[in-house]
Amino acid sequence: MKCLRAALHVAWLPQLRPATTQILARLKYTQHQGVKGIRSRKSFYEAQMQAGQQEDSEERSMAMSSGDMRFLDDRAYDEVAGGAMRISRDVATAQHVFILQPYVKWSAKRTTPNDVRPDDQLIEATALIHSLPNWQVARALKVPLESLERKTLFGSGKLTELKQLIAQLREERHISCVFVSKGTLSFAQKQFLESEFQLPVLDRYSVVIQILRLHATTAEARLQVAMAELPYIWAQAKDASATQTRRQGYSLSDLQKEILRTRERKLRAELDAVRRQRQLLRQKRKQQNYPIAAVVGYTNAGKTSLIKALTVEDSLQPRNQLFATLDVTAHAGSLPCNLQLIYMDTVGFMSDLPTGLFECFVATLEDAMLADIIIHVQDLSHPCHAAQRAHVESTLRSLAFSVAGGDSSASQLPPIINVYNKCDLVTPQAQTAAGGHLISARAQSGLEPLLMDIEEQILNVTGRRKLQVRVPSGGPEMAWLYKNAAVVNTKADEQNSEKILMRVVISQRTLDQFKRQFC
Ligand SMILES: Nc1nc2c(ncn2[C@@H]2O[C@H](COP(=O)(O)OP(=O)(O)OP(=O)(O)O)[C@@H](O)[C@H]2O)c(=O)[nH]1
Ligand SMILES: [Mg+2]
After folding, report:
1. Which member of 3, 41, 327, 369 lies 3.0 to 4.6 Å from 403 by CB, making a disulfide possible if both were Cys?
2. What sequence ranges are listed for the domain Hflx-type G (predicted)?
3. Is-contact 452 459, C-beta < 8 A?
């Protein structure tokens, strides 16, 4: 395990001391608000490097090759972004949010388990707001509509009703913004609603970006989040000029457009470098020959918790927040046969997010597509777990398609193990209906059968097999096998006291090497 951990240190840049980087990143986000940031002292990267002083030189050179990240801190850009997204980097400011969940009247009834009801959407919208520290839900309301495509979103009657409610809420308690839980609002819709409600209006895209900004602590995640913001800003600006709202406040000057283009160019160059590094690391891992299990699933399903339970890794911190994990990180574990493997923790999925927002994370998810097996973690206690499962499965299929370069005949997913988590929260009847692996990462139940299944699949996919070999006790063969194969157990050979029987898990290639060397 020690050598695997050492290999992971080299292979996984995002693992640079998470606690330290998090603190640094938080400082960084507050630096425009006057808190002494790290820019005045050292660049984020230099500071990160300092934190990783103990790491080996190879990791250091990889960090250096990501270049200077200072361009991400740009006041001029922040102003442009703030205008389009109605958010600032100051997540420390308390917000009292009025959530509106619009839905189309006729689609409100759940006819199949895969349909998500407005009630469930409202729960998800509330969870999004609770994922931001100091943000509170002042009131949450479902709003039935004829259509979601209306220019003003709400009809005049509904709008009057909402304005009255907002006025009343303002008298009773403080509200500071309205969150319309819809993928994106057009610029015109946002502008119109803000003038009617006299409050800033946010859509799902801006709220999710706010969460991603907060949770992105490594260089790669920060680059990806920065990239994810740009399509939204461009779309808002385009919409603004198309709707002739220049006078009302948001349109991009030539200078602002140039700021966005320059930022995009730099981000692309940095992300390309990251992608190239990932490819190198992937090759390296292949050479090291460790089997890989990618752990994927809907956000908050318990992916990080499961890996923590399977690896007993203290550094992993499951959190009851959406998009808590934003980096693909690798964690070493052992199978019952003592074979070591790597679990990859990944970014969670979420439905009703506009395409574009997650495209930037595709590079990291590509690794999952190339793993030996996929472990799909599902939250069985969630009322929409069937819909969540369907969403994850269809996203995985389209990811595999894009990894195969759009060739449907080549787009094959690795074998998938379905894991139903949070069984401690559901009735035995619900558990029987689910089938598959029923576990609780929190209560650590159901893990043994799961591990056996992971082992079987990994051995199948990687062409490894279990066999027993008889070797001289204490000889070089024994040492070689301990180094190059997974030793399940050993026992004395009853017929020959100078020999020992070793049960090992070994690939054909390694077995051939062994034969060449010793037979
Ligand atoms: N009751 C219960 N809670 C669980 C279980 N597994 C995880 N949780 C809780 O669910 C929340 C989310 O867990 P995480 O492991 O962070 O989920 P995740 O899938 O990694 O989430 P993201 O990284 O945000 O996509 C945390 O509060 C966990 O403590 C379980 O088996 N039972
Ligand atoms: Mg996680």
Report:
1. 369
2. 291-462
3. no
128 CA from centroid of ligand 2 (Å):
15
Length of the chain in residues, anyone?
Answer: 519
Distance CA 182, CA 177 (A): 15
List the CATH code of the domain at 289-462. Answer: 3.40.50.300
Q: Which ipTM score applies to this complex?
A: 0.99
The CA angle 211-302-401, to the nearest 5 degrees, is: 75
Distance 17 CA to ligand 1 centre (A): 22
Q: Is the Cβ–Cβ distance between 464 and 511 less than 8 Å?
A: no
Atom of ligand 1 nearest to the CA of 308: 15
Of ligand 1's listed atoms, the one at least distance from the Cα of 323 is 24
Q: Taking the domains of the chain in order of start, what are their residue ranges?
A: 74-284, 289-462, 463-518
Q: What pLDDT is stored for residue 358 in this prediction?
A: 67
Kindly report the protein residue whose alpha carbon is nearest to atom 7 of ligand 1: 302
DSSP of 377-431: EEETTSTTHHHHHHHHHHHHHHHHHHHTTT-TTT--PPPEEEEEE-GGGS-HHHH
* Cα 308 to middle of ligand 2, angstroms: 10
Q: Is CATH 3.40.50.11060 correct for 74-284?
A: yes
Rg over alpha carbons for the chain, rounded to the nearest Å, is 26
For the structural domain made of 463-518, what CATH number should be given? Answer: 3.30.70.240
Strand partners, 349: 298
Query: CB atoms < 10 A from the CB of 34, how many?
Result: 7
Q: Mean pLDDT, consecutive 10-residue segments, the chain of 519 residues?
A: 42 31 28 25 32 35 51 80 71 84 76 72 92 92 88 89 91 88 86 90 89 83 87 76 50 80 90 79 72 93 95 79 78 90 88 68 73 95 90 86 72 90 89 82 95 95 92 92 90 91 91 92
Which atom number of ligand 1 is nearest to the Cα of residue 345?
A: 20
Residue 305: both structure tokens together: 């918790």
Q: Which ligand is nearest to the CA of 382?
A: 1
Q: How many Cβ atoms from other residues are within 10 Å of residue 280's Cβ?
A: 12
Q: Are 312 and 322 in contact (CB under 8 A)?
A: no
Q: Do domains 74-284 and 289-462 have the same CATH topology?
A: yes
Q: Which of 130, 305, 316, 388 is the best mutation target for the ligand 1 pocket, counting ligand atoms within 8 Å of the beta carbon and taking the most?
A: 305
Measured in Å, how far apart are the chain's first and last C-alpha atoms?
A: 28
Residue of the nearest CA to atom 2 in ligand 1? 422
- Which of 304, 328, 350, 377, when mutated, tests ligand 1's pocket best, judged by the most ligand atoms within 8 Å of its CB? 304
CA 344 to centroid of ligand 2, rounded, Å:
11
* Tokens at 503, concatenated: 């049960």
Token pair 């994850």: residue? 392
